[in-house]
Sequence to fold (203 residues):
Amino acid sequence: MTRATAIWGVPGTRTSKHRKLMNFTKKQCVLTDYHIAPLCAPTRGAIFTGRRPLRNRVWATCWGRFILHEGETALAEVFRDNSYATGLFGKWHLGDNYPYRPQDRGFTEVVAHKGGGVGQTPDFWGNNYFDASYYQNGKLTRYEGYCTDVWFNMAERFIESHLGEPFLPVLPPMLLTGSTWWRKNTPRSTGEMRISSIRNFTA
Fold:
């Protein structure tokens, strides 16, 4: 594996003003035959465990069926235990309380909302997509700007602060198309959405 690893939702476009983030599509392993579940949390659980939803017990988005149970080995735990810095920026939706939060499942740096979306019941009261409060390593912190821009900015900071060591940034944003970063730096035809898993960010 390369010394820098990422899971990131990125469009398969060939041109971009934001080269540092988009060039990595040429230097990675891309999952092109991954079959998702019909809901977000089961798909997320499968990505983080490598096991199907019925095996990892994340098969719904409510009633506690979205919780990634303790007995499951999460991807970030494997990377953390092998001396990687690990960060998650955006949507987790695999458990909001100890021991199911992202920081309990191998992520050393986290900026995320609770629940399945910004403003849902488990999230901070009054949150919406702009100028909201998210949980940074478990502490409620106020951020300015659109939620997707916050995730991208925090992920970029994480990457830049760990360039000299192995790292795993995970960026599962809530929304891509409404982001001001996305509108300014991506052509209108975004092409195929890809989930990338391995890249070297030092380009």
About this structure: The helical segments are 19-22, 40-49, 53-56, 75-80, 147-161, 180-185. The first strand starts at residue 5 and ends at 11.
